[in-house]
Write a structure and sequence with these properties.
By secondary structure, the chain is an alpha+beta fold. It is built from ten helices and ten strands. A hairpin with a 5-residue loop joins β8 and β9.
């Protein structure tokens, strides 16, 4: 009974974290109209829980005249759309998120000119303003997309739990490293192919299949026995590679939300992938260190932690699977 309650508490805690995946950074899009110079369509998506929706307001240069915003609620965020008419181009001028210094959240700014020039920048409480550039800056692109990649793997809990399952399933640092590398290579291939529009797969089935991949690994962990290795233990690189192809579609969906800067597509793809890989290394190192510390105290503690974690992860992934299938 005590073990059941412990599992329930862990599952509830994980579920709370999982729901927090909806709390993405704020998103401010500025898109210049093609037909009319110096007029822009504005989209501001502000998550409700971190306080962006209630406290933060986009501020444009004084000569910009705005229409009345059209507001709606999208999941756990406030979505507002309006137009602005400026006396001159926004290039070379500053855009700011007023009130952001009073929050603990970040926001992503995406600007697209009528000629197709795209800029992406991160706005933070310490630096809530950005200057719209005449053209995309390579190192700004590199920094922005690297951080976006790191945050996506650390805050994209389905990908995070999949990597954790690989650590829980396998023994030996080199085996884990090789398997995670196979996962990385696979999702990088799919990400690049999808981003360059070489292949296209509908989002809802992919999201459901990603949840199913986590359920599969959690079951493999729970059913393994000494002397009778499971499929994923015998061929971990193959399993990780195949599921990595699937997860790459999820990464591509996240990247599609912010777009790619014209003229800097290779740099954006490279640094986003490097950011994802850096985030994965943090997850793997942290999980392996925790298991090693538990094993040093007592081998039984490490074994129980693996089983409890597998139950919790499998339960959450199954909940995601149901949600995604029913909402498709």
């Amino acid at each position: 009974m005590i073990r059941f309650l412990l599992l329930l508490c862990l599952a509830t805690g994980f579920a709370a974290i999982a729901r927090a995946d909806d709390l993405q950074p704020g998103y401010l899009e500025i898109r210049e109209r093609e037909a009319v110079p110096h007029q822009y369509k504005i989209t501001w998506k502000a998550p409700i829980r971190p306080g962006l929706a209630a406290r933060v307001v986009p501020i444009f240069p004084r000569d910009c005249v705005a229409t009345e915003p059209v507001r709606s609620v999208d999941a756990a965020a406030l979505l507002a759309r309006w137009d602005i008419d400026c006396g001159a181009t926004l290039a070379g001028r500053s855009v700011r998120l007023s009130g952001m210094e009073n929050t603990a959240a970040d926001a992503l700014l995406r600007y697209q000119s009528a000629s197709g020039i795209t800029q992406a920048a991160r706005l933070t409480p310490g630096n809530p303003a950005a200057v719209i550039l005449q053209k995309a800056d390579r190192w700004q692109v590199a920094r922005t997309y690297f951080v976006t990649g790191v945050e996506h793997i650390l805050m994209g809990y389905d990908h995070l739990l999949f990597v954790l399952c690989l650590v829980l399933l396998l023994n030996g640092a080199w085996r884990v490293a090789a398997t995670v590398t196979a996962f990385t290579i696979a999702h990088s291939l799919t990400l690049v192919a999808t981003t360059l529009e070489l292949i296209s797969v509908p989002g809802p089935p992919v999201e459901a299949a990603i949840a199913l991949s986590i359920v599969f690994l959690a079951v493999e962990i729970l059913k393994r026995k000494l002397g009778a290795p499971r499929l994923s233990e015998r061929f971990p690189w193959v399993v990780a590679f195949l599921f990595g192809l699937l997860h790459g579609f999820g990464f591509a969906g996240a990247l599609a939300e912010i777009g790619l800067p014209q003229g800097e597509v290779p740099m954006a793809l490279l640094t986003f992938n490097l950011g994802v890989e850096a985030g994965q290394l943090v997850i793997v190192a942290g999980a392996m260190l925790a298991l090693w510390a538990l094993h040093r105290v007592h081998a039984l503690y490490a074994a129980r932690a693996q089983m409890i974690s597998a139950y919790a992860i499998g339960s959450i992934a199954f909940m995601w699977l149901l949600q995604r299938v029913l909402s498709a």
